[in-house]
Amino acid sequence: MSQAVRVTVWNENLHETMxxxxxxxxxxxxxxxxxxxxxDAGYDVKTATLQEAEHGLTQDVLERTDVLIWWGHMAHHKVxxxxxxxxxxxxxxGMGLIVLHSGHASKIMRKLCGTSSELLRWREAGEKEILWxxxxxxxxAEGLKDRIELSHEEMYGETFIIPKPDDIVFISWxxxxxxFRSGVxxxxxxxxxxxxxxxxESFPTYFNKDVQHVIVNAVRWAAPRAMPQVxxxxxxxxxxxxxxxxxxxxxxxxEKID
Amino acid sequence: MSQAVRVTVWNENLHETMxxxxxxxxxxxxxxxxxxxxxDAGYDVKTATLQEAEHGLTQDVLERTDVLIWWGHMAHHKVxxxxxxxxxxxxxxGMGLIVLHSGHASKIMRKLCGTSSELLRWREAGEKEILWxxxxxxxxAEGLKDRIELSHEEMYGETFIIPKPDDIVFISWxxxxxxFRSGVxxxxxxxxxxxxxxxxESFPTYFNKDVQHVIVNAVRWAAPRAMPQVxxxxxxxxxxxxxxxxxxxxxxxxEKID
Amino acid sequence: MSQAVRVTVWNENLHETMxxxxxxxxxxxxxxxxxxxxxDAGYDVKTATLQEAEHGLTQDVLERTDVLIWWGHMAHHKVxxxxxxxxxxxxxxGMGLIVLHSGHASKIMRKLCGTSSELLRWREAGEKEILWxxxxxxxxAEGLKDRIELSHEEMYGETFIIPKPDDIVFISWxxxxxxFRSGVxxxxxxxxxxxxxxxxESFPTYFNKDVQHVIVNAVRWAAPRAMPQVxxxxxxxxxxxxxxxxxxxxxxxxEKID
Amino acid sequence: MSQAVRVTVWNENLHETMxxxxxxxxxxxxxxxxxxxxxDAGYDVKTATLQEAEHGLTQDVLERTDVLIWWGHMAHHKVxxxxxxxxxxxxxxGMGLIVLHSGHASKIMRKLCGTSSELLRWREAGEKEILWxxxxxxxxAEGLKDRIELSHEEMYGETFIIPKPDDIVFISWxxxxxxFRSGVxxxxxxxxxxxxxxxxESFPTYFNKDVQHVIVNAVRWAAPRAMPQVxxxxxxxxxxxxxxxxxxxxxxxxEKID
Lengths: 258, 258, 258, 258
Known about the structure:
homotetramer, alpha/beta, Rossmann fold, nine-stranded mixed β-sheet, 8 helices, 9 strands, globular
């Protein structure tokens, strides 16, 4: 591809600004860390945060975004519905979306999945996580070993209440006894969506080379292609003429029933 | 099962009340026709319509509903969001949902699918439709022949912009040149969802014995079972104590960021 | 259902006959144990073993079997190909098949999956296994809690080289660090197939009430239904007559190319 | 990719050599036609036919093949099992496979699918086929319009007895009343498989630019990647030592039961 894929990394950006301990891990913010390794991979990367006007996700920014990365945790309810609707519309049009960690409960993920907030088990105990590749032929697993090991992470456990994924790429093992579908894909409209579990703010997960490798692969996988457009049914001579074709009815009725 | 499955048939109930030609086809309304053959099949059936208070779908009605059937066409925008949210919550809890015909564009279907209104080709020309069974081992196809033929129907054509279905049971052929995934299933939370295409109001489709057979099968398939509940992760001694566990952080922060 | 589902439980029946320690666990054989709890659940149950003529799976036995259960471990290569072909054909016709534990590497499972023998990690260390329900609305999970705990089992770990399952019902956690898709479904022809991981011969796994519950559910789920039959394309007048229609060509050619 | 994907186009090569009418359509054989447009697309292309020693598919040829294309129709039974096994093994290792038209009934396709020969409706009447894109975000649909129209083709109709596809990219409409899942994908081991319906020998289908476009896309999609390899479970100290660990048992037993 002669043109670099354009990525916008969105972050809630609260933990890093409110807590010295988190800032010590991510001095440039989680978005800064992610943007850094994506630039190194050759992508055209920008960032946006909750604090900016329209959370940094104006129509103009989204139209110049091929793949959006989303990290949010404690402030899902602070994201304006109008911005969520705008992101949603862009996904349906073909923009890729990579949702990280607790973004599973974000407004945009729940809107795309059709689910609500009862979602999973969780425990914050700094335990070991091993992500096993279960779909070795998947583009997102390209170049990995058979597993990714993280010494300390927050636990997310099944039952994870999500729609049946298009593909399951990773399943996690946790020291405390749980498993989790940690890398799952969806298609919504023309947009590819990848949910990737790791990345609790208390741990330097996004500095892990394998985690970075997955996100770099996922951006390439999610980038939009030249895609067939839906055409409307041509108006043909009706085979059996109707007294009240719906298109007439609806036109006439909106006055009556509105 | 000793207890009959409890079905509520919901209908927009506008075409039948506004147009004599449609009333001639469905003198008791589309809901009346569907309720009739479901009662004959042994289900415990009630009806509800747009015109009733809360559209007839109060919390109490929904809690006593195992499977909800949805027919709507021209007045999706007249359905109150609060009722849609209530139906949505019940589906996630395990209530079955059967969405008919133009219900594909209803608020509840779009909320469950995560899609918007750009959805499909269509043409109202009274053309022939043949629904081919493509999953003969599926419970919804039990007892059918290899196809269902309808002499006159509205056309819906691909590309149908929907999430990848869990199962595809029927694919339709239309005289004018289109195909359509006409019977598709989803799971959302604990709820089973079946979308079934046929049933334009201008044609006596719900009097067709094969169409009735499919809906009778689908009710049985969608009825909720005793289902595992998600438990929360037990609080264990943290393996690596954290300075700012999120559950403390979130508790403390809501004051600060709200 | 007025007629009980007819189950045949097939077992290799070697460990129990060769080793006193295993016979102490399963004095009536693994097949005897499984047949016992299936009878208690109301099914019409028979058993068959490797040692019988045609391994006890004659054409007649298979034609009177609705659901076949398969346990094999060390002697997959001793199962005659003709019997495997016969079982395969019956699955395609609609007989249900439940493959247990190391049956993943049996000839019949590999024939149905299209895979070979490079399949998974494994370790025999008597470690703890927890099977988490990941599809709570699935009929096979009906009536379970969110997990099944087994104190001691053989480990099977990902990457498990299988076709993408139709449904994933269980994912296992193992004490030693692995995860595994432990309950997966397939459809082949008209036959429903369920693979269920637990059941190493050294442990009394099939005496576990939850494991029994899963197998009882799976038999109900896999039992064949009245299913649509494929019809051949009617011979119509050709729209564009061909010089060499294939059906003529093939008829004529078999002599020439054979 | 700096290195061109290496494609081998395999053809039964009988119709073209036996019938003047078919040779008039494909003077260089179907394989010659397909090899031509794949070379134009920049791939490194070779051909192989049934008539060559080992059907042109020696171990050496297959090891230097990234994607194999398969066209066969009347002589599936003439393909040697040893060659089929070799191709099968290479698919499991990661070689891509594109099966065209009546290759659905080839030995290799049936071996990968786990199905037998009862497969579909068909009719040879030179009727019109329209292939509708049903997954516009799929890499194989990149750059297409919403449909491909072929004036004259053989009809294949549902019910098509295949395993549930990973993805369905195209569904066909036929003038005579049938539909068909015409472009479907599978993964087997590490290999990507694409079945694409069109291409009856009596019609110049492989000269159609859209059909060529699909095959060019499919080669890119099916080409192998650097893929995670499965590792064996490390031998750990058994948590509960067993009297007869299976690895010992099996080692000892093969003498006894063989």
